[in-house]
Amino acid sequence: xxxxxxxMIDVREILRRWQVQQSARQIALQTGANRKTVARYIExxxxxxxxxxxxxxxxxxxxxxxxVQARELPPVSSERREVxxxxxxxxxxxxxxxxxxxxKVHELLLRQGMQATYWTLRRYVRDxxxxxxxxxxxxLDDPEPGQEAxxxxxxxxxxxxxxxxxRVKLWALIVTLSFSxxxxxxxxxxxxxxxxxxxxxxxxKFFEGQPKVIVPDNPTAMVIDPDALAARLNDAFADYVxxxxxxxxxxxxRRPRDKARVENQVAYVRESWFExxxxxxxDDARRRAEEWCRNIAGQRIHGTTRxxxxxVYQSVEQPAMRPAPTEPFDVPTWGDAKVHPxxxxxxxxxxxxxxxxxxxxx
Length: 362
Known about the structure:
Helices cover 41% and strands 13% of the residues. By secondary structure, the protein is α/β, with parallel strands linked by helices. The chain has three domains: 8-69; 78-129, no CATH class; 148-320, 2-Layer Sandwich (Nucleotidyltransferase, domain 5), CATH 3.30.420. The strands form three sheets. Strands 3-2-1-4-7 form a five-stranded mixed sheet, sandwiched between helices. Helix 3 (35-47) crosses helix 4.
């Protein structure tokens, strides 16, 4: 049962009834106040020796209310003091142009020896720094276990290419299983069909299984014509889908809700895995991304399902997955070429002969 907060009029009424010898139980029944709260007001009225033979003035009422409502602040916990040691550093991370996610801040502070939980850190930054995070969630019905995986590319930022020593863009192919929300991240420098096929094969190896349907975004490396009713896949990617026994259902253009389960994870991957880190090279980024997927993203309590993705996957979804491929996919190269007068064609710096009977003569 919820009790309303008492104002000065309520306090005056409690004390007026106390003056006429009503019990705490009677006062609570007549005023609707909590019986224990009424007893506390009576206790302090007696301690202050308020008179019962005259009407109480505002000063009397205020004095009793102050005694009851004034509470000592609880002592600061050792964990909160521990967080306070890093106040300036936390403030810098949260107020920079691209603020770090609070879970990432907690992870970085743990590496520096901080001994405090995430929830202590969260309460501290809300109280001391006014930090808050608006939350807006749209719940959708989940498909059956092992049925669907959603795929998206996200720009993480820049890394240094060890060969050229130049800053290059680092992309991440993100594969999220729609039922369990277990995810795999494949860092890459290119958004080519070969890079996508390699990343998907590594995802199936990571999951130790593959789903029946994939819902990709619309980069030309996967989709040539993103028609809402009859999307046309890139020829090489269509070969991959057929070879793996998958069904591709591309999302509509500018319709992020079609792949909301992976769309919502792009920022999480960027903030939790990439930002604040430094990688030696692409191989190091891939190795650490896989560790992050297994040990951090997979072990967290998902904000929508309120379950641990890795546990849901292993107990429910993995038995429903199709077997993962065991051989790498040889990505074919498609293109247009002209037949030269000597009945040869040149394609990607290679010469191929064409049988004379296959040539059209004018």
